[in-house]
Amino acid sequence: MGNITAVTRGGVVYEPSFVVGINQLDCISCGRCYKVCPRQVLELVDRTAEMMRSRDEDDDDDDDWEDDEEDSDATMMAIINAMDCIGCEACARVCPKKCFVNQPLPMGS
């Protein structure tokens, strides 16, 4: 079975590219993607301690993220309604940090 396709009003066939991931470590929580999403696919959520530990393990320096009060209230964007995504890629186009992963998907996925 092939990928999902759509047709513009002008009759041009195209392949939507759906949001399948967000690089949450790079997300600066600016909210631009949230504002442009026509289907409420995204939501700003609190960064978990686990995410902070994961980030700390990836860094080469010795910062202790869990002891940093400023980071304890940090937020990030998350995909909460992936099945509502229409593949418009508006989120990816407005993201200043290029955090979004979009890709065409097969029917029924």
Structure write-up:
This protein has helices at residues 32-36, 49-58, 69-72, 90-94; strands at 6-7, 13-14, 18-22, 42-46, 75-79, 100-103. By secondary structure, it is an alpha+beta fold. It has a single domain, classed as Alpha-Beta Plaits. The strands form three sheets. A two-stranded antiparallel sheet has the order 1-2. A hairpin with a 5-residue loop joins β1 and β2. The radius of gyration is 17 Å and the shape is elongated. The termini are close together. Mean pLDDT is 85; it is low at 63-72.
What are the defining features of this structure?
alpha+beta, 4 helices, two-stranded antiparallel sheet, 109 residues, Alpha-Beta Plaits, two-stranded antiparallel ribbon
- Our Rg estimate from Cα atoms comes to 17 Å
- Tell me the helix content: 10-25%
Largest sheet: 2 strands, antiparallel
What's the tally of helices? 4
Mean pLDDT value:
85
Please state the structural category: alpha+beta
Poorly predicted tracts of residues: 63-72
N- to C-terminal distance: 11 Å
Query: What is the approximate shape?
Result: elongated
The name CATH uses for the topology is Alpha-Beta Plaits
Task: Provide the domain count.
Answer: 1
Looking at the overall shape, the CATH architecture is 2-Layer Sandwich
Share of β-strand residues: 15-25%
- If strands are numbered along the chain, what order do they take across the biggest sheet? 1-2
> How many beta-strand segments?
6
Just give the CATH class: Alpha Beta
Order of H and E elements? EEEHEHHEHE
